[in-house]
Amino acid sequence: MAHTLILLRHGQSEWNAKNLFTGWVDVALTEAGRAEAVRGGEQLKDAGLLPDVVHTSLQRRAINTAALALDAADRHWIPVKRSWRLNERHYGALQGKDKKQTLAEFGEEQFMTWRRSFDTPPPPLSDDSEFSQAGDPRYSVSNGGPGEAAPRTECLKDVIERFLPYWDAEIVPDLKAGKTVLVAAHGNSLRALVKHLDQISDDDIAGLNIPTGMPLVYRLDADLRPTVAGGEYLDPEAAAAAAAAVANQGR
Ligand SMILES: O=C(O)[C@@H](CO)OP(=O)(O)O
């Protein structure tokens, strides 16, 4: 049996628009981002791709993107499962910093190492920073979160390590039950998932960028291997242009 998995990065956020490193800071969608989410949902409906269940992070840009897209697809009523494990990569001390200024201050190599290396995290964010999530009740142990063990910074490797247990325990069973699964998440948590699905090397994943608000559809075989490497965007040309723009942020 083929399984259908749809990945959707949130629409443009206020900090995407301002070109700031965001990570776990819970910023809202812009009007353009809301429109992207609606358009993504319309594309799903037009393609006859109707999610049976949606998994999101605990961040409003993904939560609201899922709601807007599902409403546009007339699937606003399906079950929602949320987890901090789908959150954006914690960007450490870069959270709240301007990407262009960071590039100018630290240079291309350090900037790209922090942004796209597999295993080098940015410096940790101090708990007394205005951009810290330490103590945020949504990440408490009583709410199913990591509590005090919550990250203060992460590299992509760390994201994969915290995401995969959720994939195995919550998403795989939905796929195996024959459900069409929508994962509404973030640039780097979806890069972690794509790396896993397509078995992309630690070096090659640096070159992969995911555009905002564009559904990426994977048909998976019985072993949950993609039948088409890299999946398929419903609007491939627009997705390629938007992914290139993500790659060029800061320039
Ligand atoms: O700032 C962030 O949290 C992410 C996604 O917007 O940025 P980048 O693409 O630079 O990893």
Automatic annotation (TrEMBL):
Q: Where is this region: Disordered?
A: 115-150
Q: Entry's Gene3D superfamilies?
A: Phosphoglycerate mutase-like
One Pfam family this sequence matches? His_Phos_1
Catalytic residues as annotated in Swiss-Prot or TrEMBL: 10, 88
Which keywords annotate this record? Gluconeogenesis, Glycolysis, Isomerase
Q: Where is this site: Transition state stabilizer?
A: 186
List, alphabetically, the SMART domains matched: PGAM
What the protein does comes down to: Catalyzes the interconversion of 2-phosphoglycerate and 3-phosphoglycerate.
- Protein's name according to its UniProt entry: 2,3-bisphosphoglycerate-dependent phosphoglycerate mutase
Originating organism: Nocardioides dubius
Highest lineage ranks of the organism? Answer: Bacteria, Bacillati, Actinomycetota, Actinomycetes, Propionibacteriales
Please state the gene responsible for encoding this protein: gpmA
